[in-house]
Structures are given as structure tokens and as C-alpha cells.
Amino acid sequence: MIPKNKIISVLHPNVNNKWWAINMMIYLSNLLKKENIVEFYTFSYNEEIFSKDITFKINCFNKIKTAYSIRNSDYIIIWNSPMQFVWVLSKILFFSKAKLIWWHHHYPWYYGKNTNVFILIKRLLEKVSIWYIDTLVSNSYYLKSSLKDIYNVDSKVLYPILDKDFTNHTIWNIDITSKTIFTYGRRVKWKNIEQVFQTYESLKNQVTWLKLNIWWIWEELHFYKDKYKDDINVSFLWLLDKLSIINYLKKSLVCLFTSKIDSFWMTIIEAMSIWVPVVAFDIHWAKEIIKDWQNWFLVKTDSDFTLKVLEILNDSNLQKTLSKNALKITTDFGESNFIKNLEDIF
Predict the structure, then answer these.
(1) How many domains does the chain have?
(2) Can you give the residue range of the structural domain that contains 217?
(3) Judgement on whether residues 152 and 296 belong to the same structural domain of the protein
């Protein structure tokens, strides 16, 4: 069961943007704070964005000081590197008796093919420190399998929770005449953003009034904004809040998920909750929740990706069928399931 009357330290290195991962740590902290003393430690945070969410304790890149501060905790929960080393320092240097929980939200990129001396040392230290950890937590069964291969340690799965703003909306009639495709999320180069524009280029002459809405910042932003500056059907959006995302989803017929590296992405779940079909690549964790021809589409190639988007845009009956199956999946990501799995972890 979830503990009561305990001291719980939550560690995340940088809280500067409202990515879903950081939102999950804040949600978890506030949930635990109802019955416990919860202290959130970070090296930096954006006060303008997060001042009303939770109180942060700032130890500016002083890992030893943070390790000392958390020594009397009953539980220590961390998210990102290098916080796994901070809690081990607390255990070794200050004899902390805390239970250590490490919640992974993505594949540890530093176990990829490209390595250097710094990365090799980090991996060696991590292989040693993993034995001080009481519970390893992953955000999907794909990541659970990956962490098992890396650390030779089993983990418990804790899916992220779907924000209530995506579940507290009223039912509406989907506008099947809207030929709008939408993509959003944290965009960086290796998330295959090029696929979005390849699909748009392939379809813009086949689908009348096709529109593309795209939100977020990534390395090639200026290149694409310049390329499409005269195309009135392409809109580059800026820092949308949750309600704005919901409104854009309601206006869309297809949501594009192009990443080939993530271990989980809330975009798919959020789109499902708004009944918007998703086209994604047939990789990793997506297979856990997307069933081809039942709720959304999984594809293996770039060309198939574009063809499935076209199929949904041109087939209103298919669009309605996919939409009806959406909510069957999103119920797995509600608060009750999250709390149940969290109780199992503790």
C-alpha cells in the first residue's frame, strides 16, 4: 500500500519545461504529499512555469549537499541521471536507510552504440550502483524488457497517467470533413520529424484542403518554417497548453506519431482520449496499446505510414470505427489503475 507519515524525497535534475515526464513527477509528488512529507530536489527549475505546482529544494549542482539533505528520508524516488548517483552517495557516505526507487521513463540512451570514455565510466558506475536500488520501475513492458537486458534486474511497470483535462471533456461529433493532420510533442532530430513533412508532401495534391498543424521546438524548426512560409495550409504552433491541444485534436482527423526511439509517448494516449486516430510505427512499446485495424494503425515503412494516413482521411466509416475503439484503451491510463500499480510498487 502507499505509505503514510513518511519522509519521501523526489529527485529530478532539471525542471525547466512541462514535458509529460516532469508533469508525472510533480503529479506523483502531490499524490504522495497527501499522507507524507514530500521534498522535491532539483538542480534548477523554471519558477515562472512551476511556481504553483510544488515547492522545490534547489541545490545548484551540488550532489554531495543533496545526498546529505536526503539522508533521513524513508523513500527516495528519482527519475533522470545523474540522480541515481546522488542517492547512492547518500547511502554510502551518510548511511541513509531509505528505500530507493528509480523510475525510468525512456531507454537509457548512453547504452547505445556510440560511446566515449565518459560514457563507459558512467555505465560502469551505474552497473555497480544498481545493486543499491530497491525497486526499478519502467513506464512500459518494452522498457521493462530493455532494462532487464541492461541491468539484469527486473522492474515493475507503472504506466503514466492520462491528465484529467483529457478525460473531463464532453462528447462531440467528429467533423469528418476536416482534412487536418496534427502532430505534437517534444521534437528532437532523432524523433523522425521528417516523416511528418514527407507525408504532407505526398498527400497535399491527393487530399483537397489538406492541412497540417505541428507544435513544438526542434533543431530543424527554422528550416521548415522557411520552407513552408508561403503555404497557408501548414501551421507551426507555439507552446500550447493542455486545453489548446485538446481543441486542436478535436479539429483533426489523424494524429501522426513518427518517433522510432521512444519507450512511451503520451501523445498517443491523449489523442485516443479525444477519439483521434493515430498512425505510428510498428516498434517497441506501441505494440502494447495499438492493435492494428482495431483502434489505430501501426506501420513498418515510411510509405505505409503515408498510405494509412490517406486511408483514414478518405474513409469516413473507418475513421468512425477507429474512434469508437479509442476509449477502450485509454481507461488503462486512469488514476485508479495508476494508484493500484503504485501501491504494488511500495
Answers:
(1) 2
(2) 164-332
(3) no
Let me know if residue 64 belongs to a domain.
yes
Reduce the secondary structure of the chain to three states and give it as a string: CCCCCCEEEEECCEECCCCHHHHHHHHHHHHHHCCCEEEEEECEECHHHHCCCCCEEECCCCHHHHHHHCCCCCEEEECCCCHHHHHHHHHHHCCCCCEEEEECCCCCHHHCCCCCHHHHHHHHHHHHHHHHCCEEEECCHHHHHHHHHHHCCCCEECCCCCCHHHCCCCCCCCCCCCCEEEEECCCCHHHCCHHHHHHHHHHCCCCCCCEEEEECCCCCHHHHHHHCCCCCCEEEECCCCHHHHHHHHHCCCEEEECCCCCCCCHHHHHHHHCCCCEEEECCCCHHHHCCECCCEEEECCHHHHHHHHHHHHHCHHHHHHHHHCHHHHHHHHCHHHHHHHHHHHC
User: Within this chain, do residues 266 and 319 fall inside the same structural domain, yes or no?
Assistant: yes
Per-residue pLDDT of the chain (346 residues; tens, 9 = 90+): 899 999 999 999 888 877 778 888 889 999 999 999 999 998 888 877 777 777 788 766 688 889 999 999 999 999 888 888 898 899 989 999 999 999 998 888 788 766 788 888 888 888 888 888 899 999 888 899 989 999 999 999 998 888 888 876 655 566 667 899 999 876 556 678 889 999 999 999 999 999 999 987 666 777 888 999 999 999 998 778 888 888 899 899 999 988 877 777 788 888 888 888 889 888 777 777 776 556 568 888 999 999 999 999 998 888 877 877 776 777 778 888 899 999 999 9
Task: Examine residue 2 and state whether it is found in any structural domain, yes or no.
Answer: no
> Domain holding 67: CATH number?
3.40.50.2000
